[in-house]
Write a structure and sequence with these properties.
The complex is a heterodimer of chains A (about 350) and B (about 350). Chain A has about 350 residues and is an alpha/beta fold. Chain A has two domains: about 140 residues, Rossmann fold (3-Layer(aba) Sandwich), CATH 3.40.50.2300; about 180 residues, Rossmann fold. In chain A, helix 3 packs across helix 4 and helix 5 crosses helix 6. The longest helix of chain A is centred in the first third of the chain and has 19 residues. Chain A starts with a helix and ends in a 5-residue tail after the last strand. Chain B is mainly alpha-helical. Chain B has a single domain, classed as ABC transporter involved in vitamin B12 uptake, BtuC (Orthogonal Bundle), CATH 1.10.3470. Chain B is about 70% helix and about 5% strand. Chain B contains 13 helices and two strands, in the order βαααααααααααααβ. Chain B has a two-stranded antiparallel sheet. The mean pLDDT of chain B is about 90. Classes of the chains: A alpha/beta (about 350), B mainly alpha (about 350).
């Protein structure tokens, strides 16, 4: 089936290719390094959906992806494998590939590398990531409205700025409509481990959470909420099929928009090394459609906020914002710089949990 | 009629030599059907595995890079196996070694290249040794099962390293990402041929030679073997079994700890989460297949390197899912371990009513 699909993509690429040949100087052979298995939901799945969408471009040849590549030095060999196979645009889709990406890029100047979520660039290495805090904030509004006990559980992977930023945005969203709401955080120290994620979710339900959210790759938190009759906010991809009753909405990635753009840039020779941090305006991140259980008035409220974020008239981290100890971290009316957002290392007031120091 | 197994009085050299080869062949044959089912020509795929791991200077260098930590950890585990001591904790010892070496690299301020590397090596050796030494002491003093202790201490070691990189050792210039700063040039091993092959590999070979001589040519090596095969007899002969157990586990952990030094100084150049993707566990299989011989460890570790590096080609060139690569590697290990059984036992058909 996969082959048939690949073949038909290839065929349509060939047919359409001639029409575009004039505009595009080179064909794109892309390679992807994935941190987990593609599966049918989650971080890697979302990237793979983006890859498939990019492949619809006529000048993009079938790409290669490698699943479950360990982060760290180990990954350099695999990235190099993609280069030797002839890839001229390589996406390394997890933070832990940063040093390896830079290292391989140094030896292969004619290949463009895009590293997701890191901070190191080079002449032929750009970085890309999304302002996931925007739809996180919106999903927080939904959670704040839907909780009855004012206890929201949050299953979180690692205490790094990306995850911390998400928890804070979510909490600000929830407290904006429900100042009583508390967000309890449990760290799992893993991106993908359904067993551990499930245990963490269950422990949050045990201490009284009636809405769960998560920053993980597996849908285990959704299944836990479904089994116990709680509500749940998904993440990464629309995971509603795992929890048809419990699912409310989910902040999700839409990598296809960005991958399509990058492939076009590289093909036409207009690509330059930059640090991309797109938001809802560019369509890289969004909120999945609501479950019918979310009341119409809440849906309207959230949709209004979403429009304000897209229009640039509202920023989720607009001050005053206080940290857990009550110190003011963002002054009234101020918005943190991107640098401050990218290195965020404190919890806002309303979060119950600690960041290891 | 009934199938029974009985121990061979003597397994022939020929059998010992051929059984692993035959088992690899059988495994490749069986895996071939899997490949066929996935629509891949097995011969072409096997050729890719060899070309990927051995067919170029680059491929070979990567295989040797992969082999390096496996040799250290395999040597460490096999030394303990010699004495019938089961060190399941090489993974944690690698982490402690990596941690100690990183601590020296980041905070000692030494700027002499040789001195820095010597200090890092010694720190990793001592730290890995002490980590395993805890299990050795408990075993020698109170007969606490070293399998449990070494295994559980893995989790402590890995989480402790996580604590350091998320907390006190985090790079102040790293945007709060969980990484230590990169090492200075003084704390890096030499690299060769514009590849990632580093001097840690040659250190591993040297270590294997030292261990071989130690085991085969010294009284100590002899005592370890005797204590392993018959502790009572060893005690009657006046050997200090308690001290020997502690020392062997200490050395076992110390050598595994050097794998951590070699990984951070030769390859990663910083400490971070997931410094070893399970080398310490692979080392157990290696030590088992190598029949506890130091030279055997080098050979088996190299084969394992070929299997791990070559396995990537199934994904890169044939776009098979990673689960397939795991299944393929699992099949080969399964048949290799099975061949070990047939070297030691023979299977017979027995007629008539069986008892028991």
């Amino acid at each position: 089936m996969k082959k048939l699909l690949l073949f038909s993509i290839l065929l349509s690429a060939c047919l359409a290719g001639s029409a575009f040949a004039a505009q595009h100087e080179k064909e794109i052979t892309a390679g992807f390094i994935y941190v987990g298995p593609v599966g049918d939901a989650g971080w890697t799945y979302a990237h793979d959906q983006g890859r498939l969408e990019m492949e619809k471009l006529p000048f993009v040849k079938p790409s290669t992806y490698i699943e479950s590549v360990p982060e760290g030095a180990e990954s350099a060999r695999v990235i190099n494998g993609l280069v030797r196979k002839g890839a001229n645009l390589i996406f390394t889709t997890s933070f832990g590939y940063m040093d390896a990406t830079i290292d391989v890029a140094r030896r292969n100047k004619d290949v463009v590398f895009m590293h997701c979520s890191g901070f190191k660039t080079a002449e032929n290495v750009g970085t890309y990531f999304g302002r996931m805090y925007e739809p996180r904030y919106l999903s927080g509004i939904v959670a704040g409205k839907m909780t009855k006990k004012n206890v929201i559980g949050y299953v979180a992977a690692f205490p790094i700025p990306e995850v911390i930023r998400g928890i804070n945005a979510f909490t600000l969203g929830a407290r904006s409509v429900n100042p009583q709401a508390e967000v309890k955080v449990v760290w799992t120290q893993t991106w993908f481990d359904p067993g551990i994620e499930r245990d963490a979710a269950d422990s949050l339900l045990d201490v009284g959470a009636d809405v769960l959210a998560m920053h993980q790759d597996a849908p285990a938190t959704l299944q836990a909420a479904e089994a116990r009759g709680a509500y749940v906010i998904g993440y990464n991809s629309d995971m509603r099929s795992f929890a048809p009753n419990a699912f409310l909405t989910a902040p999700v990635w839409n990598w296809g928009a960005l991958y399509t753009r990058l492939a076009t840039e590289v093909s036409t020779g207009t690509w330059k090394s930059t640090q991309i941090w797109d938001g809802m305006k560019e369509g890289l991140v969004e909120l999945a459609p609501f479950n019918a259980k979310v009341p119409a008035e809440v849906q309207t409220l959230v949709t209004g906020k979403a429009a304000a974020i897209k229009a640039g008239t509202f920023h989720p981290f607009t001050g005053p914002i206080k940290d857990q100890a009550g110190n003011e971290v963002v002054a009234p009316g101020q918005v943190p710089t991107d640098g401050d957002l990218l290195s965020m290392n404190y919890f806002v007031s309303g979060v119950q949990g600690t960041i290891p120091k | 009629m009934k199938l029974v197994t009985e121990r061979r009085e003597l397994s022939s050299q020929l059998l010992r030599f051929c059984a692993p080869l035959v088992s690899i062949a059988v495994a490749l044959f069986v895996a071939g059907f899997l490949l066929l089912a996935a629509g891949v020509n097995p011969l072409a795929a096997y050729q890719d595995i060899l070309v990927e791991s051995l067919g170029s200077l680059y491929g070979l260098s990567e295989t040797l890079v992969k082999t390096t930590p496996l040799i250290f950890a395999g040597l460490g585990v096999s030394l303990a196996f010699r004495m019938q001591i089961w060190n399941i904790g090489a993974e944690g010892q690698i982490y402690m070694g990596a941690m100690a070496a990183s601590g020296v690299a980041l905070f000692s301020g030494i700027d002499n290249h040789g001195l820095m590397l010597l200090a890092m090596f010694s720190a990793a050796f001592l730290c890995g040794g002490c980590w395993a030494g805890v299990a050795g002491f408990l075993r020698a003093r109170w007969q606490v099962n070293e399998v449990i202790v070494t295994l559980l201490m893995n989790y402590i070691a890995i989480l402790f390293v996580d604590y350091l990189v998320y907390g006190p050792w985090k790079d102040p210039k790293g945007f709060n990402f969980p990484l230590t700063a990169q090492f200075s040039d003084a704390a890096r091993l030499a690299e060769y041929f514009d590849t990632r092959l580093h001097s840690g590999f040659f250190l591993a070979l040297f270590m294997a030679l030292v261990l071989y001589l130690f085991m085969e040519r010294t009284i100590w090596g002899y005592e370890i073997k005797v204590i392993g095969s018959n502790p009572k007899a060893a005690q009657y002969a006046g050997m200090k079994t308690g001290l020997a157990i502690f020392t062997v586990l200490f050395l076992s952990g110390a050598i595994a700890g050097v794998a951590g030094f070699s990984e951070v100084a030769g390859l990663q150049h910083r400490l971070q989460h997931g410094i070893s993707p399970g080398y310490g566990y692979t080392a157990i299989i290696i030590a088992w297949l190598a029949k506890r011989s130091a030279i055997g460890v080098v050979i088996v570790a190299f084969l394992m390197g070929v299997l791990l590096v070559g396995g990537d080609s199934l994904q890169i060139y044939w776009q098979l899912p990673v689960a397939f690569v795991y299944a393929f590697q699992g099949l080969i290990l399964f048949f290799l371990l099975a061949s070990d059984f047939f070297i030691q036992y023979r299977v017979k058909l027995v007629r008539g009513a069986a008892h028991g």
